[in-house]
């Protein structure tokens, strides 16, 4: 949150990956899945080197950087594990971070469950990509909303301070933290109205007929109740439109109202049977490929936000308007002199 701290290259790469993939969208939709099916990683790299398209080279370099970064983390963690407990404790996270846990569990796994080195490194890249900017940008969004709604911020601070007082100033346990209703309502409402991933894409594996939740009228005046989706069609699943659907959430669906979570939700939501894994929302998707980190991300958000809001008051930085870049993962942007997005929050002590 500080203007003059240089950004880590990884976070810059991750922010640019979405737009870079967007520039590749034609190849992405048509050629890339085919390339992956037909050729090994090595041949794919050779082919990417050979084609004269800048957009392809940009994505290649980004993916290579992310891969090399995962290899570096893997090597450091492997060395620490080999050297023993003391070396593990000296690392950031003291061996309790997800990547160390993954590696330790893999050492103890039976032969049929053990992952190869390449796969561990690939899983690391997936975790870093899927877990990092999604949760941190969601937290930025919460903090920004708190600057715009100081009454909500005060109420939240009061709830947190009261809980701390009740446990004699000790850190709140997991159960105590997740039981704070107002903090929970703020997180849920932010995840509803501003899902960090607004759209996901799927390719139909077979010819399908998708029923519409309510009929629409075509230009010829006829009522349409279902849509034919031929095999191979790429479908854009709009998470954000499901979360903001006034038929389910009511006429105030576009308003940020944490209070809506403090009383029982309207029947229209239960009846809508949204298939998402979290809170009648599509924010973390649903089904077999839904987010495996949604509980973890909620915990991370609550731990960090509760600590910050207890200690600091957040207010908008004068003269700086935040806009949100809606790429793969939406991120806050105020362009600084160097052309990179900044998060302009003015932080002062709450005491
Ligand atoms: C606010 C935070 C987060 C949001 C909004 C979010 C959202 C999502 C969504 C929408 C998907 C499905 C993507 C698709 O299928 O195209 C997904 C997948 C995934 N997420 Fe998250 N995620 C968050 C945090 C995390 C965290 C903290 C972790 C790990 C600790 C994580 C790990 C994953 C993984 C590994 C997948 C791929 C699952 C699979 O394909 O089987 N996510 N996430």
From TrEMBL:
<keyword id="KW-0472">Membrane</keyword>
<dbReference type="GO" id="GO:0020037">
    <property type="term" value="F:heme binding"/>
</dbReference>
<dbReference type="GO" id="GO:0016705">
    <property type="term" value="F:oxidoreductase activity, acting on paired donors, with incorporation or reduction of molecular oxygen"/>
</dbReference>
<dbReference type="InterPro" id="IPR050121">
    <property type="entry name" value="Cytochrome_P450_monoxygenase"/>
</dbReference>
<dbReference type="InterPro" id="IPR036396">
    <property type="entry name" value="Cyt_P450_sf"/>
</dbReference>
<dbReference type="InterPro" id="IPR001128">
    <property type="entry name" value="Cyt_P450"/>
</dbReference>
<dbReference type="InterPro" id="IPR002401">
    <property type="entry name" value="Cyt_P450_E_grp-I"/>
</dbReference>
<comment type="similarity">
    <text>Belongs to the cytochrome P450 family.</text>
</comment>
<keyword id="KW-0408">Iron</keyword>
<keyword id="KW-1133">Transmembrane helix</keyword>
<dbReference type="GO" id="GO:0005506">
    <property type="term" value="F:iron ion binding"/>
</dbReference>
<keyword id="KW-0560">Oxidoreductase</keyword>
<dbReference type="Pfam" id="PF00067">
    <property type="entry name" value="p450"/>
</dbReference>
<dbReference type="InterPro" id="IPR017972">
    <property type="entry name" value="Cyt_P450_CS"/>
</dbReference>
<protein>
    <submittedName>
        <fullName>Cytochrome P450</fullName>
    </submittedName>
</protein>
<comment type="pathway">
    <text>Secondary metabolite biosynthesis; terpenoid biosynthesis.</text>
</comment>
<keyword id="KW-0479">Metal-binding</keyword>
<keyword id="KW-0349">Heme</keyword>
<keyword id="KW-0503">Monooxygenase</keyword>
<dbReference type="GO" id="GO:0004497">
    <property type="term" value="F:monooxygenase activity"/>
</dbReference>
<dbReference type="GO" id="GO:0016020">
    <property type="term" value="C:membrane"/>
</dbReference>
<keyword id="KW-0812">Transmembrane</keyword>
<feature type="binding site" description="axial binding residue">
    <location>
        <position position="291"/>
    </location>
    <ligand>
        <name>heme</name>
    </ligand>
</feature>
